[in-house]
Amino acid sequence: MADASVIETGHEADFGDYVALLKPRVMSLVVFTALVGLLVAPVSVNPVIGFASILFIAIGGGASGALNMWWDADIDAVMKRTQGRPVPSGRVTGNNAMIFGLWLSVIAVLMLGLTANYLAAGLLAFTIFFYAVVYTMWLKRSTPQNIVIGGAAGAFPPMIGWAVATGSVGIESILMFALIFMWTPPHFWALALFMNQDYSKAGVPMLTVTHGKRVTRNHILVYTIALVPFALAIAFTSIGGPLYFAVSLVLNALFLKGAYDIWKRQEEQAETDNYATERKVFRISLYYLFLHFALLLVEATVKGFGYNMAAWPQWI
Amino acid sequence: MSGTDSKISDRRKRNNIMIGIVLFSFVGLVFAITVAKMMAGQNMEAFDHAVRPALEQAE
Fold first, then answer.
1. pTM of the model
2. A18 and A163 share one domain
3. Which of A132, A177, A187, B14 is deepest in the core (most CB within 10 A)?
4. If you average pLDDT over residues A157-178, what whole number do you get?
């Protein structure tokens, strides 16, 4: 009897376990960047439609998180950081996580299509596919470039938000995509430098495991340099402005300096101070992304109040 | 009822209430979306396997 087995094993999923399947912390980033994409767009959106759209984007992102946890339960069980997740800890069965993820994906995409438009819904569907299938099922276990290409999944939300408002894809939304896309590798590799043990135990081919930390340090520097032009280019589009440009200059200088410091360091130095520089750069990278998007919001608000700097060049 | 039984039924009750809240919120949200779309004057008709003159005029 179902009841008897529940008492024997002591496992029965709580509502909170299903919420945990949606990866609420990742979701908060999705909500934030999608909201910025929606609000900076030149078309205003009815608040109810805007709220519902962001909610469905968040649910779609959460659904891909549930699918990821279903597929990666074996990896999650080995890594300290992820051992307590609902599937590896046995509170939710893998099968239930899969069904939950699939249904939420369908609901989120359909509802976004009905609420906003089918371009936004299509982009959301592609994002879920990309994260669950291309990243989780394929790249994550097969190539050390996994997070480079997988980062695209995290980069789509502002583009979806923009599509909700405008019904199209613009140079602005492509640059917002590029900003997150280029930012992801140095961000995660900085994390991987001081989390190395976990990844090697789980057999995930992180760059640090397959090619060593020296190569990872080189990669961080190269990708950070490649990121800078995309971040600065946004300043000269319709959504940028002097405020964004000024702060972006500082943030990029900080991030570049951090990447240079990581590149310059020898492994022995890093071990002596327990990866202090790597941890610091990881923290800087979080502020870097958050502040860039926050500033786009500030620029939009300032323009909304009619303070438009006519002399500011809009080259892109 | 033993202590374990009542603890489990308490937990189930809490879970059911949460699911209830989520479902009712969803219904409320769909209603709000409908109202918002109608107030914006959008066409509420869609393909229905029959000729709909209003749809053709809209295009």
1. 0.90
2. yes
3. A187
4. 97
